[in-house]
Design a protein that fits this description.
Alpha-Beta Plaits; three-stranded antiparallel sheet; 300 residues; alpha/beta; 11 helices; five-stranded parallel sheet; single chain
């Protein structure tokens, strides 16, 4: 059993060492890896670990500090299933639920299980699993935690998914602009805390970088014309880090021209994600089906 103090660790990714060890074990043995994170040890966990060396139980101080970036990185880099105990503090449970929902939307569907400490967890931990493809942890641990989450989601989801729809209040997404209402006051640019919004040099149009947007909503709330709106989601293509002109998709639609539209999820990617979600079962006590081909399939 490992003890992890998530509140005090200076590392941006507190599960990094565990991911590296799991990746090495999977590379050497080909066996699936299971991670169990808890604050209060569930019954039978110690016996399960003694019988199954690929089950890694970790006692975590401040379990609510384990966020979606940590969980996505762990799933992409070595662990096939994560068991996550429900936070003991009632005020932290809603935040934890939102983080888990976000992970499931970004490739962790069927691979992360919340449990409340009831009996039977030891039996489920010992269930037979099929290993998923894994990427070396250091490959995805780049830049900020947001960058790591995005890279991990790209590794987990099928290559055909270019855009992932996310639940409300997700910290990723795009901004919609109604050009008919916008009076070019530029209030949204001055209030944006991450510089996701800026002005183009030539025409002074609104430029937007999806990867920088945290969906804080300040631009929406300050707009006097109510010309802006938020759309949660994650662009998994290279366009996410490139500036695009807001409102361009409306002009293109009117003129019949083609091109990538800012603020709109690609239809093909959305359909592929729905197909993936329908084909990926929730956790079964008996097995998990292999994941579809991803951007990093074959890289271990």
């Amino acid at each position: 059993m490992t003890l992890l103090d998530a509140a005090r660790r200076s590392s941006a990714l507190p599960l990094m060492e565990l991911c590296q060890a799991a990746h090495d074990r999977k590379l050497a043995s080909g066996r699936p890896q299971t991670l169990a994170l808890y604050e209060i040890e569930p019954p039978g966990l110690a016996e399960t670990q003694s019988l199954h060396s690929d089950v890694v139980p970790v006692a975590v101080c401040c379990l609510d500090r384990i966020g979606h970036a940590d969980l996505l990185h762990a799933l992409a880099c070595g662990f096939d299933v994560i068991y996550l105990q429900v936070c003991s503090a009632s005020q932290a449970r809603e935040h934890q639920r939102q983080e888990v929902e976000l992970v499931r939307s970004l490739g962790g569907l069927g691979r992360i299980v919340l449990f409340d400490g009831a009996a039977g967890v030891d039996r489920r931990l010992a269930a037979r699993l099929l290993p998923f493809p894994a990427v070396a942890p250091e490959v995805l641990a780049v830049g900020s935690r947001r960058d790591t989450a995005r890279a991990s989601a790209a590794a987990l989801l099928p290559t055909s998914v270019g855009h992932a729809a996310l639940p409300e209040q997700a910290p990723y997404g795009t901004v919609r602009l109604d050009n008919d209402l916008c009076n070019s006051c530029n209030s949204c640019v001055w209030v944006c805390p991450t510089d996701a919004l800026s002005l183009t040099e030539n025409a002074g149009a609104l430029s937007f970088v999806e990867s920088l947007c945290t969906q804080c909503g300040l631009c929406v709330s300050i707009c006097p014309q109510r010309a802006m709106g938020l759309e949660p989601g994650m662009d998994l293509t290279a366009y996410a880090v490139l500036p695009s002109v807001l409102g361009k998709e409306r002009k293109q639609a009117a003129s019949g021209s083609a091109g990538p539209a800012s603020g709109a999820a690609p239809d093909a990617g959305s359909e592929a994600l729905q197909t993936y979600a329908a084909a990926t079962p929730l956790f079964s006590e008996h097995d998990l089906s292999s994941a579809p081909e991803t951007r990093h399939t074959g890289r271990v």
